[in-house]
Amino acid sequence: MKITLNGKLTDTQIKSVFELKKTITDAKNTVVIVNGFAVNSDYFLSENDSVVIIEKGIMPSKDEFESMISARHTPLVYDRLKKAKVAIAGLGGLGSNIAIMLARTGIGKILIVDFDTVEPSNLNRQHYFIRHLSMQKTDALKEQILAINPFISVETKNIYLDETNIKDLFDGYEIVCEAFDNPACKATLVNTILTELPSTKIVAASGMAGYYSSNKIKTEKKMKNLYICGDLTNEAKPGTGLMAPRVQICAGHQANMIIRLLLGIEKV
């Protein structure tokens, strides 16, 4: 029968996944994934099954690594995502966490844009560590992305975005994720892309401050190419700060909407 084994089409007469595992490794600590599910008991193979068998603690080859990620996704999802190009504008609490989520999902090319450096007050909600203090956010985040998935293409731009550079920078990207703190910068980015890059979709955010109910954060389609995540109300202000839980919930909404759009699903 024909199966896909660690990303490669294979013809085998072996009937069970555990028998198959013995032909690959005698290691006891292995990950065995069959058709997207990790299995702990034996499984009888069928035609066209997808099997991934990887030894724990060992860095696999690119094909094995990608097949392992693909196996944990819904079938055919990874093939689409690894061809995608996504840009993230702003690498604070939203953007840094969104970039990490997209990296774990296997987005093929990610452009990350910010002009700032990592400083101590970022550590309460942004995806940085003490070792990153004083580093450019783009460099610190690229380091983390490649530590998660070394086969992703990561482009960095240490630049302040305004009307003069937005079009040229984001032209050719399917989706731009807006992740700014500054309302004026948000408006400039969104308005410029809507008017000058009409085929580009924007996933923006508004309202994720404080520790209000998680259930108030949602995703809404505001117009043809604009999606906004958040509660649309609770912005950061004196007495209401930005805290990791709600910021990351909103970041999760943005990352999930990006994935849905890449898969051709526009309904929020």
- CATH architecture name of the largest domain: 3-Layer(aba) Sandwich
Number of helices: 8
Distance between the termini: 41 Å
Question: Largest sheet at a glance?
Answer: 7 strands, mixed
Strand content: 15-25%
Radius of gyration: 21 Å
Query: What does the average pLDDT come to?
Result: 94
- Outline, from the CA principal axes? elongated
SSE order: EEHEEEHHEHEHEHEHEEEH
Order of strands in the sheet with the most strands? 8-7-6-9-10-12-11
Structural class assignment: alpha/beta
Number of domains: 2
Helix percent reads 25-40%
At CATH level 3, the topology of the largest domain is: Rossmann fold
CATH superfamily of the largest domain: NAD(P)-binding Rossmann-like Domain
The low-confidence runs, each spanning 5 or more residues with pLDDT under 50, are none
